[in-house]
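Per your request, structure below.
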């Protein structure tokens, strides 16, 4: 089955550009639009478009709210939602940023099946309350915040953080620093708690001076890592709560002439593309944000047909991926 990704590759553009052209959005150069349409025709993708139009009289529009500082995370979420919508014959609209006007537009959207909320909106209790009041179905992605009558999908961030911190401990590290994400996000708190759990299980004292709060960006990882590594008693390992901040840690170590992993071990979280392209490649926690978005689309289709009697979180598998950024002390 031809996918939107196949069309993007043939046209030599991004999947976002293909989506904009096929959805009739403005702002695409005529030459680019022509390339996309030719590629779609060559791959017989128009058949899928026709199938969508036949379903236009039913609820077949999924809205994705995405406003995450991590570009890799946002791209993966959008790709997963696109694939999920294509498989189900739905249309996808992406809202970024999101405000009161956006909410009003969504509530009045013809054929709206539901909304996918991603961090930080998936923790926004005010927004969630407004969606519930408007009778709009939604699924929250990448959150562990419990909200009544609210469907969510993700992994056990606390346990995953415990596992990757334990990996550092098993390699002989006791001076382990932590760079977390925004304290307002539930996943940030859960990952920090998993770090605490692992230190506690190993009877390693928690050093508050080795705990920093970033914002999930490369720049914040670099700044906080420099602070940690310039201290009089520097850590031998750093656990950054996402891969972009971990990549920033590698840059800080390079600036200070510290060899990774010989003098410093670094681990991340998410297994985003940056984890594989930096040097040394990052040991990290693999979670499929793309699968989360695809599953969220499926769940919206299911709850449109049948309202679940019991709302339980959907927990996906995760895996610690061991690469070159860690070694035994």
């Amino acid at each position: 089955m031809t996918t939107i990704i196949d069309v993007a590759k043939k046209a030599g553009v991004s999947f976002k550009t293909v989506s904009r052209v096929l959805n009739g959005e403005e702002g695409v150069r005529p030459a680019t639009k022509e390339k996309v349409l030719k590629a779609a025709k060559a791959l017989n993708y128009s058949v899928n478009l026709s199938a969508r139009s036949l379903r236009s009289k039913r609820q077949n529009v999924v809205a994705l709210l995405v406003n995450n500082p991590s570009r890799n995370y946002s791209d993966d979420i959008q790709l997963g939602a696109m694939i999920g919508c294509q498989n189900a014959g739905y249309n996808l609209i992406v809202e970024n940023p999101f405000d009161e006007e956006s909410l009003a537009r969504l509530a009045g959207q013809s054929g709206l099946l539901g909304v996918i909320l991603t961090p930080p909106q998936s923790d926004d209790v005010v927004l969630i309350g407004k969606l519930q009041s408007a009778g709009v179905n939604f699924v929250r992605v990448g959150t562990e915040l419990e909200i009544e009558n609210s469907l969510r999908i993700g992994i056990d961030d606390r346990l995953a953080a415990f596992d990757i911190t334990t990996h550092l401990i098993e390699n002989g590290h006791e001076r382990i620093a932590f760079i977390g994400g925004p304290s307002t996000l539930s996943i940030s708190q859960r990952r920090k708690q998993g770090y605490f759990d692992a230190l506690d299980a190993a009877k390693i004292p928690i050093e508050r001076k080795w705990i920093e709060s970033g914002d999930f960006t490369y720049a914040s990882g670099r700044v906080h890592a420099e602070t940690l590594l310039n201290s009089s008693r520097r850590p031998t390992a750093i656990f950054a709560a996402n891969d972009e901040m971990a990549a920033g840690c590698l840059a800080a170590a390079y600036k200070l002439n510290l060899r990774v992993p010989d003098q410093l071990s670094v681990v991340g979280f998410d297994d985003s593309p940056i984890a594989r392209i930096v040097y040394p490649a990052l040991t990290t926690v693999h979670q499929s944000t793309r699968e989360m978005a695809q599953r969220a689309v499926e769940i919206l289709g299911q709850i449109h047909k049948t309202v679940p009697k019991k709302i339980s979180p959907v927990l996906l598998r995760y895996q610690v991926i061991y690469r070159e950024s860690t070694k035994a002390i």
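Residues 4-155+289-318 form a domain with the Rossmann fold fold (CATH 3.40.50.2300).

Regards,
D.
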